[in-house]
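hey m, so remember when u said the tokens were messed up on ur end? i reran from scratch. heres the input so u can diff it against urs
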Amino acid sequence: MEWTPPFFGVRLLTQCEWAILPACTRRRQSMKIRTIGLDLAKNVFQVHGVDERGAAVLRKQLKRDQVASFFARLEPCLIGIEACSGAHFWAAKLTASGHRVKMMAPQFVKPYVKTNKNDSLDAEAICEAVARPNMRFVPLKTAEQQSVLTLHTARESFVHARTAQANQIRGLLMEFGLIVPQGIRYVYARVPELIEDASNDLPGRFRLLIDRLLQHLKDLDRQVHELEKEIEQWHRSSEVSKRLETIPGIGPITASALVASAGDPSNFRNARQFAAWIGLVPHQNSSGGKTQLLGISKRGNVYLRTLLIHGGRTLVQLARTRADHAGTWLAKLVGRRHHNVAAVAMANKNARLAWALLSSGKAYERGHVRQVTT
């Protein structure tokens, strides 16, 4: 029978070394690896594997170019990794090798670190956390979803840079006693007039600087609009995203972000868990049977929460000004609560509606009444 060298620690044993090992150690080495914790990094990866009894049978350090070939030789098993930079890439890579990969948020892994922090202990903690039956896992994203999210990430960074540039222009003009109201539209409308007005005694080099900053602001605005066109183009090609757009308060940007971020709706047990994942449910501080609900938790996806709340504010404005919205649920809520509270409540409702459409595959129906089966 051909000799297959087993793993022991961080290297392979020779046949002579294997023969002189104690029987208990040889039995442990012969056991199949069931669960692996993989600590990701840029160059050095740490692996911790356990058998079906939870006993450690593998501790190994790998270079980046060794990871794919190492796991390709292993029998399929459960691999846990932290949701960090490059996690989706390695999840897809290891899944293609036949393994089952689950990602976890780093804050859920931290309690399983025993003592001090190092790569070996981190891998052991990941291995322990991924085997917990009540652990929450991060949905795996496809390459298509990641590409759409990169458009959203780039757009958001340009929006922030555009706002910062507009505020810088307003602040510099304020140093010379020239006040421009808040809002980018006022910057576009009034700044050209101010730098062309000879009566305000602005230095020539300052006029040239403001004009340069204004051109930079226009370039950032152009980049934002171009990315929005690309996002909308993908949105029009996705049937699921177009179905989400039919929900009032959700446009192409929000719909495409929901589809790309949520992925498989079966990762969430119900609509409330989906809203909690976005951070649109109350934060609790309950004890001794006394329930205390605070503001929204603000956990999870900040970008999705921002988009949904912006959509909720638009609907709140319609409920306050349009007569055809006077008798709606939102209009009654606005009548008794602050408009910001109503906007967040509307965002929570839209998140639940989005999960319902994603999980059922149906289109949005205005005035839909749920049928209760007996």
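this time it looks ok to me. The chain has 15 helices and nine strands. if urs says something different then somethings off w ur setup not the seq
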